[in-house]
Design goal:
- The complex is a heterodimer of chains A (403) and B (100).
- With 403 residues, chain A is α/β, with parallel strands linked by helices.
- Helix content of chain A is 37%, strand content 17%.
- Chain A contains 14 helices and 14 strands.
- Chain A has helices at residues 29-39, 56-66, 86-95, 105-108, 111-131, 160-173, 190-195, 200-220, 227-231, 237-245, 288-297, 327-332, 351-366, 372-375, and strands at residues 3-7, 13-14, 18-23, 44-48, 71-78, 99-104, 135-138, 144-149, 177-180, 253-257, 267-271, 302-307, 320-324, 339-340.
- In chain A, helix 2 (56-66) packs across helix 11 (288-297).
- Chain A is globular and about 60 Å long.
- Chain B has 100 residues and is mainly β.
- Chain B has a single domain, classed as Archaeosine Trna-guanine Transglycosylase, Chain: A, domain 4 (Roll).
- Chain B is 0% helix and 29% strand.
- Chain B is built from no helices and 9 strands.
- In chain B, strand 6 and strand 7 form a beta hairpin.
- Classes of the chains: A alpha/beta (403), B mainly beta (100).
- Chains A and B meet through helix 8, helix 9 and helix 10 of A and strand 7 and strand 9 of B.
Chain lengths: 403, 100
C-alpha cells in the first residue's frame, strides 16, 4: 500500500478529493470562476468547455473528467441556451455515485443569483462528499501515471526524459499503468516504437497513429517544434521527437488508447492525441495543459511533466510533478521544480538515482504530499473541440479487470 | 567539474554541450580526440564532432535528426543556421507573425 486513497462508489480509487465546478459554455465561465474563488478552498476547482456548439469529444471528455477518481462531486454551470447536453452529463455523473448539482444561470435569474445558488450547491455537495467518504488502501496497481514534456530544450532528451523513462519502467514493474502521448512529437520514432508492441495489431495502431500525426501537422503547416525549443538547442522535429520518445521507457507497449479511454489493464499505453479524419478544429492540442487534460480523462491520477526551458503549470484535478533536465533552469526556477534532473550533468546523480527520486515522489504525492505547482495554486485546465473515431478492440488486446 | 560535452551514441557526429562552452576552448573527447570550439555554444546545443559536409545527415542518439544545409568544421555549432529537418520545417518567433 502506498497511500490511503478515496474509494468511489464506482469502485475507482483517487488520491485527491476534488469538487469540480464545470462551466459548459464560455458564457458561464465567469459565474463558475466566481463560485470557485468565493468558495476559497483548494479542493474546489474550475474546469469547463467554452464552445456553444455540441461536440461528442467534449461531452465524452467532460464525462470522463467529472467521474475521474480524484473527483468526489461536481457542480455544473450552464448559461441555459448552449448546445452542451448538460442533462446527459449530470445523469452520467450521478450514475457513477457522485454528488452533482446543475445551476442554470438563465433559470437562476442572472449572475448574482447564480453565484449564490452555486455557492449553496458547493456547501451541499461538500457535505455529501463528506458523508460518502470512504478511504481504502491505494496501491501501485490502482495508480495511473501520465507523462508529457513542455518547453523542451537540448537537455530534456539527455536528463529529464530518460530519467522519467526509467521511472516508467519501475512503475510498470510495480504494477502501475503508465501513459505516454504526444504522437505529434514522436514523428520519426514510429519504427522502434512499433517494435515494442505486444501484438502485431498494436504495432499497426502505433505506426498508424504516428503517420496520422505527421499528415495532420503537415496540413497545419507547423510541427510541434516551438521557438523555445530552438533557443534551447534543438534543431529539428525529429531531434525533439527522439528526446521526447525516451520518456516512454523500455517496457512493451500494451495498447493504443484515445482520449477518455481508460486502459483496461496494467502496463504501458500510447495515447493517440491527434484527431481522426481531415483537420477540422485546428491544432490537436493547443498547449501543454490540453495534453494533461486528456491524460486525466484516461484516468491519470498524476502527471510527470519534464521541462527544459522551465514550465510553471500545474493542473486542476490531478497533481503535476515537474522535472527539469536543465540545471540552469532549476537554479532560476527552483520554486516551481519538483525534481532537478540537471544534476546528472554535474555528475551529482545518475539516471537511476533520479528515476528512484521520481518514483519516491510519485508515492509521496499519491499519499497526499503537495507538489510545487499545487502549493503555488496552479490549477490550469483547457478543453477545446476535437473529433475522434473510437479505438477498435484490436488496439486494446488486454481486456482485464474493471478500472 | 561538469564535463563540457557529452557523446550520446558512438555513431553520433555531434556532441551536446553540458554547459556553455567558450570559443577557442579545447575539449578532450574519449579516445583522445580533441575538439576546439569554433564559437560560444550554450548548454543543450550541439557541436560538430567531425567536419560535416552540406547534405550530410546529422546523427544524434544514433539516429538521423536532419541534414546539413551548409558545411561545418569540427567544433562548430550545429543548429538551424546550418541544418534542417528531413520531416517538417521549424518555426521561430522571427518567422511568425506580421514581420514575415
Amino acid at each position: 500500500m502506498i497511500a490511503n486513497g478515496y474509494l468511489r462508489a464506482d469502485g475507482r480509487k483517487g488520491i485527491r478529493d476534488v469538487l469540480a465546478v464545470g462551466y459548459l459554455v464560455e458564457c458561464a465561465h465567469h459565474v463558475a470562476r466566481r463560485i470557485v474563488e468565493m468558495a476559497d478552498d483548494t479542493e474546489v476547482q474550475l474546469v469547463g468547455f467554452p464552445g456553444c456548439y455540441p461536440n461528442d469529444y467534449a461531452l465524452r471528455m467532460m464525462k470522463a473528467l467529472s467521474t475521474h477518481p480524484n473527483v468526489g462531486g461536481v457542480i455544473l454551470l450552464s448559461l441555459g441556451c448552449e448546445g452542451f447536453n448538460r442533462e446527459e452529463l449530470a445523469r452520467h455523473i450521478s450514475q457513477s455515485g457522485r454528488a452533482v448539482e446543475t445551476v442554470v444561470i438563465q433559470h437562476a435569474g442572472g449572475t448574482r443569483s447564480a453565484i449564490s445558488e452555486g455557492l449553496a450547491a458547493v456547501g451541499r455537495v461538500k457535505a455529501q462528499m463528506k458523508r460518502s467518504l470512504v478511504k481504502a488502501p491505494f496501491d501501485f496497481s490502482d495508480l495511473i501515471v501520465g507523462t508529457i514534456c513542455g518547453g523542451s530544450d537540448g537537455t530534456s532528451g539527455i536528463t529529464a526524459n530518460p530519467a522519467v523513462g526509467r521511472a516508467f519502467d519501475r512503475l510498470v514493474d510495480l504494477g502501475a499503468t503508465c501513459i505516454f502521448e504526444e504522437t505529434g512529437e514522436m514523428i520519426g520514432c514510429e519504427g522502434p516504437m512499433g517494435d515494442r508492441a505486444i501484438t502485431a495489431d498494436v504495432a499497426v495502431a502505433i505506426r498508424g497513429s504516428i503517420e496520422k500525426a505527421d499528415k495532420y501537422y503537415r496540413a497545419m503547416g507547423y510541427g510541434s517544434f516551438a521557438p523555445g525549443n530552438a533557443e534551447g538547442g534543438l534543431s529539428s522535429q525529429e531531434e525533439k521527437s527522439a528526446g521526447a520518445y525516451i520518456k516512454s521507457g523500455h517496457r512493451p507497449i500494451s495498447g493504443v488508447i484515445k482520449p477518455a479511454e481508460v486502459p483496461s489493464a496494467h502496463g504501458l499505453y500510447l495515447l493517440d492525441v491527434v484527431p481522426d479524419g481531415a483537420p477540422k478544429f485546428g491544432f490537436p492540442n493547443i498547449s501543454d495543459n490540453a495534453e494533461i487534460v486528456e491524460l486525466m480523462a484516461c484516468g491519470a491520477h498524476l502527471t510527470l511533466f519534464t521541462t527544459g526551458r522551465g514550465s510553471v503549470v500545474g493542473s486542476a484535478i490531478a497533481p503535476v510533478i515537474k522535472i527539469t533536465g536543465n540545471p540552469e533552469t532549476f537554479r532560476k526556477m527552483a520554486e516551481d521544480m519538483d525534481v532537478n534532473a540537471g544534476r546528472i550533468f554535474g555528475g551529482e546523480a545518475d539516471l537511476d538515482e533520479v528515476a528512484e527520486e521520481i518514483v519516491a515522489l510519485v508515492k509521496a504525492t499519491a499519499a497526499g504530499a503537495r507538489t510545487k505547482s499545487e502549493e503555488l495554486g496552479h490549477q490550469e485546465f483547457i478543453l477545446t473541440y476535437k473529433s475522434f473515431d473510437q479505438a477498435g478492440p484490436a488496439c486494446l488486446p488486454r481486456t482485464a479487470a474493471h478500472r | 567539474m561538469t564535463p563540457a560535452v557529452i557523446l550520446l551514441h558512438p555513431a553520433d557526429n555531434v556532441v551536446v554541450c553540458c554547459r556553455t562552452v567558450r570559443m577557442g576552448e579545447r575539449i578532450l573527447l574519449e579516445g583522445g580526440v580533441e575538439l576546439i570550439a569554433r564559437g560560444d555554444i550554450e548548454i543543450g546545443h550541439k557541436m560538430a564532432r567531425v567536419a560535416l559536409a552540406t547534405f550530410a545527415k546529422v546523427i544524434k542518439y544514433g539516429a538521423p535528426i536532419g541534414s546539413m544545409t551548409q558545411s561545418a568544421d569540427a567544433g562548430e555549432w550545429v543548429h538551424l543556421h546550418n541544418m534542417k529537418s528531413d520531416y517538417i520545417g521549424a518555426h521561430t518567433r522571427s518567422t511568425s507573425g506580421e514581420g514575415e
